[in-house]
From TrEMBL:
GO annotation, biological process: carboxylic acid metabolic process
Signal peptide: none
Superkingdom: Bacteria
PANTHER family: GROUP II PYRIDOXAL-5-PHOSPHATE DECARBOXYLASE (PTHR11999), MIP05841P (PTHR11999:SF70)
The species this protein was found in: Dactylosporangium aurantiacum
Assigned protein family: Belongs to the group II decarboxylase family.
Keyword tags: Aminotransferase, Decarboxylase, Lyase, Pyridoxal phosphate, Transferase
Entry protein name: Aspartate aminotransferase family protein
Cofactor entry: pyridoxal 5'-phosphate
UniProt cross-references to Pfam families, sorted A to Z: Pyridoxal_deC
Modified residues (N6-(pyridoxal phosphate)lysine): 293
InterPro entries associated with the record: Aromatic_deC, PyrdxlP-dep_de-COase, PyrdxlP-dep_Trfase, PyrdxlP-dep_Trfase_major, PyrdxlP-dep_Trfase_small
Recorded GO MF terms: aromatic-L-amino-acid decarboxylase activity; pyridoxal phosphate binding; transaminase activity
SUPFAM superfamilies: PLP-dependent transferases
């Protein structure tokens, strides 16, 4: 076996990584390079001859650095993006080093067991049924695809149709009921699955974007056939929670499957003071959440859970003569997600949970909510939502989009823009484990200063 020089390039990568991470408190948060500058620095023809591996890593880091958004920074408040805790990042480095194909138990036994263990810990933290199956996917998008594929299988099976064998042509039409303020990944999942967005039945929501049970009852009353209800825990703009327990009661009485989009809001279940927001979540049929948001593990790391493991496996599982399939208590991950060959994402999730423990996870969630509330107080009079979680919507009138751009360009913090009830708004999300009170105050001071034109 050849003996490559691992020490040189890995040492360079370590030095570049630690320089970046330790410099985050002082670093400008946004990208500092234009598209043309990045193309000039990173582009050009493929060289005929190879280069020294350490030199390649060093040049890559130098060329890419101006185009790196400091999303792991404690002052990155755009979208809902966490950082990476030291344990999770280190485990992710080992994941790349071990380079396990985590589709089959036979190709990565430790990877399979770690996913099984971490999945059990997460079921416990979220208060989900002990028998629920778990899959580790890229993010909420593929988690929705996986869960809704299981839902599609089950509601059509109950109607006497085998969708995996016979496809959708000629199948009973599935109605998908979701709040008018649902996340766009629900629509996209329906496109991927062949159900189509025409199957969507928008359900009335209140002023915070919460699905109303009266609206759900009315929507279900007009349907006759297979149905899936998509509830939301954590509106992407306001952070609001659908009344999940009531939704489960209404939907199940009509024979519908309930899927929960809890991309970040499901983490409220880990907090004693926030758990009331998800009362009844254990009665749903499938759940989506992300680890690369509030758990602060590196991208990409999504999670899917299903209360009906047989439906989950029927939708995702595959058999082939050349594969070494698991037997007994062994677990093949490809039976629970849409990938075949796949990265062993469970190691980083396992390390994050092990390092934090139950109380550490709870503290992480509570702290993010406290900091969001602190920011809302600084924005007094301009807050557009009830701050129930880690999301704050702020309005500065028609000037809001320009203000968002100026805040991003200034570099102290990074926020994103959105539309809320037809008006522009600034969206402020707190989900990084390193964010502290000083970060919130610096961000608030910057935003108010730029809004005042000073």
């Amino acid at each position: 076996m050849d003996r490559p020089d691992w020490h040189g390039p890995l040492t360079e990568a370590y030095e570049q990584a630690t320089r970046f991470l330790t410099g985050l408190p002082e670093r400008e948060v946004g990208s500092r390079a234009t598209l043309e500058e990045l193309r000039a620095a990173l582009g050009g023809p493929l060289p005929d001859a190879g280069s020294d591996a350490r030199e390649v890593v060093a040049r890559l880091a130098e060329a890419a650095d101006p185009g790196i958004v400091a999303s792991p920074s404690g002052r990155f408040f755009g979208f809902v993006i966490g950082g990476a805790t030291p344990a999770a990042l280190a485990a992710d480095w080992l994941t790349a080093t071990w380079d396990q194909n985590a589709g089959l138990y036979a190709a990565g036994p430790a990877a399979a067991v770690v996913e099984d263990v971490a999945g059990g810990w997460l079921r416990d933290l979220f208060g989900l049924p002990a028998q629920a199956s778990a899959g580790f996917v890229t993010g909420a998008q593929m988690s929705h695809v996986t869960a809704l594929a299981a839902a599609r299988h089950e509601v059509l099976r109950r109607a006497g149709w085998d969708v995996e064998t016979d496809g959708l042509h000629g199948a009973p039409r599935i109605a998908v009921l979701a709040g008018a303020d649902r996340h766009s990944t629900i629509d996209r999942a329906l496109r991927f699955l062949g159900i189509g967005t025409a199957a969507l039945v928008p359900v009335d929501v209140d002023d915070q974007g919460r699905m109303t049970t009266a609206g759900l009852r009315a929507a279900l009353a007009g349907l006759d056939g297979p149905a899936i209800v998509c509830a939301q825990l954590g509106n992407v703009n306001t952070g609001a929670f659908d009344p999940i327990g009531e939704i489960c009661d209404v939907a199940h009485a009509a024979g519908a499957w309930v899927h929960v989009d809890g991309a970040f809001g499901l983490w409220a279940a880990t907090s004693a003071r926030l758990r009331h927001l998800v009362t009844g979540v254990d009665r749903a049929d499938s759940w989506t959440t992300d680890a690369h948001k509030w758990l602060n593990v590196p991208y990409d790391s999504g999670l899917v859970f299903c209360a009906h493991p047989a439906a989950h496996r029927a939708a995702m599982g595959v058999r082939a003569a050349y594969l070494v399939h698991a037997g007994g208590d062994e677990r093949d991950a490809l039976d629970y997600n849409p990938e075949f060959s796949r990265r062993a994402r469970g190691f980083a999730v396992y390390a994050a949970l092990r390092a934090l423990g139950r109380t550490g996870v709870e503290s992480l969630i509570d702290r993010g909510c406290d900091l969001a509330a602190r920011f809302a107080r600084r924005m007094s009079g301009r807050v557009l939502n009830d701050v129930v979680l880690n999301q704050v919507l702020v309005g500065f009138g028609p000037a809001t989009p320009d203000l968002v751009r100026r805040v991003q360009a200034e570099g102290t913090c990074w926020v994103s823009g959105t539309l809320w009830r037809g008006a522009p708004a600034m969206r402020f999300s707190v989900s990084n484990f390193t964010t502290d009170e000083a970060d919130i105050d610096r961000a608030a001071d910057t935003i108010l200063r730029l809004a005042a034109g000073t």
